[in-house]
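Feature request, filed as a ticket because there's no other form

It would be nice if the structure record came with a short human-readable summary line next to the tokens. Right now we just get the raw output. Example of a typical job, pasted below so the devs can see what we mean:
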Amino acid sequence: MKGFTHLVLIMKKNRLISWGLLLCAAILSLSSCTFGDDEKDIEIVDDPMVKTVQYFIVGTVFDTDTESALAGVTVKTGDTSVTTDNNGRYEIIVDTKKTYQLEFSKDNKYVKVTADATIASGAPNRSMVTLGVKMKAISEHVTIRSESASEIIVSDKGEGDHEDASTTIHVPAGASEEECSISITPYEAPQHATTTVETGTKNILVALKNVAIETSKTTEFKKELTVTVKNLASPNAYFDPGTMELWSIDEPTRAPAGWEKEETVIKWNNGNYSFNTHKLKSKYTLEIYTERQIGAENNSEYNLVNGQTELKVDNSGNANAIRDIDITVEAKTGWNFTVSPAQALTTAGVTGDDQTKMAATIKNIIETQEGGFAQIYTVTQNLKASVSGNHIMYYRNRAKFCEKTYIFDIVVQGGKNTTASVKVKAYTGSEEIYQNEQATQHSGGSI
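Raw output as currently delivered:
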């Protein structure tokens, strides 16, 4: 009996030893599958995606007359200056949330324009704001002789009442006692761009036409001059001049504090609008009210990241970090019509020649509001990331966009006043989805 008991104890002891050996083997096996003897310390590094703060101000500059991209434009804000490339594109990278005033200029041959771009206080890191611009070449100067015996017409096409001119200044005979020069150039003033999207309905002032004037005469003329903006409408369909506002500034800046409302009568005649003045200011803007509706932002579209919709860097099981991983984002921006001015006017019952002129005017208004000509394009953002040992990094980038509706009140001869509703799809920035976590905190897959 003692021998049997001793045998049982030996068997139990051997079983415990076997289980112990198996457990040790499993631990050693697990260790050898993850890190080698010289790789037991996991390397932890700073991630530039977390440490680096940057925001993007981007856009395209166009030549108003040719409707093509304008290269070589200097874009300046503070001490930062960049130049547009062959596609008319520019990018300014900043690191502070605030409002930046951008100045656009080219060879003193184009009307210089300025506009604000705001990185709002609540904007997440790497937010992007788009500010597109149309620039107009300065028109040639016309010489006004002292005590001229005949009326002189200055237009954006030079001297004379050119049929295709869009702006003119009628200088009466004997209006100036001294010789002087005058030029008049229609231009688009870019609007304030911001990372914040204000949804809802709002009545806003929009520019029918902006005019830049250069003159060597700084004093008043003896006789009233007539400034006319032409072909904005037709005799049968037009905007009510009684609801218009005329603003002016006597210095070449877009600073809001410098603009003053002109207390003058705006006259309408056969699709043209005009006003009289004894003294020419540097810039004028003729504006009307329109209703703008902005819908909620949508983020259902993805921007490509390194050519795909998701970037994954799996460094699990590796103690060494992976540094300076290149991330290239192709971020969608720009805008396009979803209901064009012509389509909106057809729905409103405005057709034929009436529609042609009115559609061109509405198109220019919306181009000024949205920034440049209608187009959707991508902006390349070059980012860097680092992945610590035994970490997995996932990155996606969604494009944000919304629908905007512009509603215009139109006077139609015969008392059949109507409204035209134009719609655009506008990209408003991007939204990042980024994870860089220890492998044990993430089971794998995707985000």
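Something like this underneath would help us a lot:
Residues 299 and 314 are 26 Å apart (CA to CA).
The two ends are 67 Å apart (CA to CA).
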